[in-house]
Design the sequence.
């Protein structure tokens, strides 16, 4: 049981930022990653579709005998986590609870900003989670639908990227926030640009590392942490062609050799 | 047979620009439109996936007894048209052949530019079709992956949209083209902004009207044109929630009352 792999999934590539943090924190844990590249992005789709897709992927990961499932996608965490937890027998961790918890501890003036996809922002999941932890904290949100296409286009520090960040964050920066949650796994790739625009005094919370910490905590608590001392094995599965995933994946994970296989979820 | 509806499909909303032209040209023809909003966008996905999705949608439209199928999506036209034509018994029209034909007739200096999604541009479909009609014409291409998210965000005349157009068209405008094919059904919505950037001397070819003309021609040729004199009926089907489709759809089609129903293609 302890030596079974960790399962991670995302709508596409973004979840690799979470995988990267888990690899750093738990270098001996095997990982199976699933990217739903045939149906990416999730951010603008309905809750019903997101729940269906998430359940299909979770079933696939369970067939692969994972000991825990990490929903490394903010939209799926926001819209499908309760359904997954209800139906699955392994622990399921999303990125929203760890990110919200970290932000609540980090803020000094109690004013937290949240940026994400339309799906994540409209679900109000971060706001609800922040209020659940501390009702007195103030939360302000902004959907930024162009950030994901910008990252996928590779315009990480392009002048236009700075202009789009400015446009989206205009209203938020007037709210005197001192903490900003990057509520989408793609956003850490434009973290430097965002930091420049909001200024050094605003702390950026990247859910990826908070989530990795939470995974470690749960594995320890449930006695599921691997005690092996060997190099971990990583496997990648996608629902569309592996080629683009391998290519853009290196932007997220560095030049790790990636063994990527295509799986047809719809016919499962 | 003559009074059966025209079937139109697209990855999402973009094909409504084609539908709108067909409605103008053939106001008595009933139309059934399918938007694959659960899997949009097609532009960055593999040919294998695009063929699978297109076949599923075509089967659905045939169940609805359409007399002709219009592939109102450049990516699906580029990647799935031969497969559809091989397997279907009704005429199948894509947007690429009519657009290429129009451009070849329109150019005065024989230099044609083509912009589109990654999938459309990488397929070289427009270039092949232009060369098939007239080998002496020169064709120059540029993928513009951020245009679709910009249109969906509604930034149709935003200053940032102008900057992104400038960035993408920089190389193309140096090629001395006098004709530019808008090789994606979303692009007509930023046609004014594109025209401003390329200048009045460059003619923009919007495949939508060229395609509508081609549909009329084929219906007449095959004796399939409706001779009824009544107001046409329009039905819309989507694979994700109808709500967003109805909302953004009006940006494409005007304030037409839209009857939209969700269909689960994967389980068909």
Sequence:
């Amino acid at each position: 049981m302890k030596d079974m792999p960790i399962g991670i999934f995302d709508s596409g590539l973004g979840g690799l930022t979470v995988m990267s943090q888990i690899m750093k924190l738990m270098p001996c844990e095997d990982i199976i990653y699933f990217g739903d590249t045939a149906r990416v992005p999730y951010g603008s789709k309905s809750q019903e579709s997101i729940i269906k897709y998430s359940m299909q992927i979770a079933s696939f990961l369970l067939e692969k005998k994972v000991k825990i499932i990490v929903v490394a996608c903010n939209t799926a965490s926001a819209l499908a986590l309760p359904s997954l937890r209800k139906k699955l027998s392994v622990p399921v961790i999303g990125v929203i609870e760890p990110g919200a918890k970290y932000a609540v501890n980090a803020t000094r003036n109690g004013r937290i900003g949240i940026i994400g996809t339309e799906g994540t922002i409209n679900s109000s999941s971060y706001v609800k989670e922040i209020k659940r932890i501390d009702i007195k904290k103030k939360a302000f949100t902004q959907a930024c639908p162009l950030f994901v296409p910008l990252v996928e286009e590779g315009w990480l520090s392009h002048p236009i990227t700075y202009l789009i960040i400015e446009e989206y964050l205009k209203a938020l920066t007037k709210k005197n926030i001192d903490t900003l949650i990057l509520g989408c796994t793609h956003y850490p790739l434009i973290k430097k640009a965002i930091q420049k625009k909001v200024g050094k005094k605003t702390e950026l919370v990247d859910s990826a590392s908070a989530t990795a910490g939470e995974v470690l905590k749960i594995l320890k608590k449930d006695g599921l942490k691997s005690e092996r001392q060997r190099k971990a094995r990583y496997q990648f599965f996608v629902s569309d062609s592996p080629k683009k995933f391998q290519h853009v994946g290196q932007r997220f994970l560095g030049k790790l050799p990636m063994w990527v296989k295509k799986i047809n979820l719809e016919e499962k």
Observations:
- Chain B has a mean pLDDT of 94.
- The two ends of chain B are 25 Å apart (CA to CA).
- The first helix of chain B runs from residue 16 to 25.
- Chain B has two domains: 6-94+209-267, 96-207.
